[in-house]
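Entry: Transcriptional regulator, AraC family
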Amino acid sequence: MLQKNTDIPYQQLPFVGQFNIFPLLGFKTELTRQPHRHDHYQVVWFSKGSGQHIVDFVSYELEDNMLFLLEPGQVHQLLDDAKEGHVITFTEHFYFSNRHEQATMYDFTNLFDATRGYAPIRISNRTAATFQLLAELMYREKSASGSSRSIIKHYLNAFLLQAEREKKRNAAQAIAPLKGDERVVLLRRLLEKNFRAQHHVTFYASEFSLTPKRLNEITREKTGKTVTELLHDRLVLEAKRKLSFSHQSVKEISYELGFEDPAYFSRFFKNHAGIAPQDFRDVMFK
């Protein structure tokens, strides 16, 4: 169990340099079953899986050939019954080691971008076979004498491009896919940048030269939520992360998230999370 006097914001993986790949079957620690986060990008491919994988406090039922893409700072935990597959970890610096690569390499950050809503990716059998081949090539190059960063990077690049194709296929096969609107994607990115300081719809509407009413109409049509609801979701998620992974008091967290009145923040959190902030923290450390 987590200890209240121990600060463990990031899990220490068997991370060699700025890239690593390792089998899921052989990787199991007490910490994997507890909420934790990483300071690098992580690709978790369950070739066989059952149980639960919880990402940012949302539980997903594991299936065979399911892929999870995690950005730095995302919270997750594995409550699994069985799992096989591979984990790939890498830093942005590993992938983009110079300006030329930033201009010419595939921009994987869009693949990991959850602004359209986070969801695992279901992988077809054909793509799973390709993933297995690319994983074996990465293992082989990583363990070779004088292994090449460039070769590993190209194998990784091919893996991520295949993942992007599957992500698009998943979206196309959705029962009721929402029509895209680039303004909603930009709004989510704007929220991500400003949610701590800007709690009013008028700020975000002005960025699009729209009235608050019109921006709310757009977001409700595309996401089923108003701007305020999207903002509140992000504030609650960040509050949960802070309550789980910091020693800051509830009062300090409320100020950091832009609430001038800690008592109002506590009411806000309980209204949206169904539990008071301190009670949520106590449950996490139980």
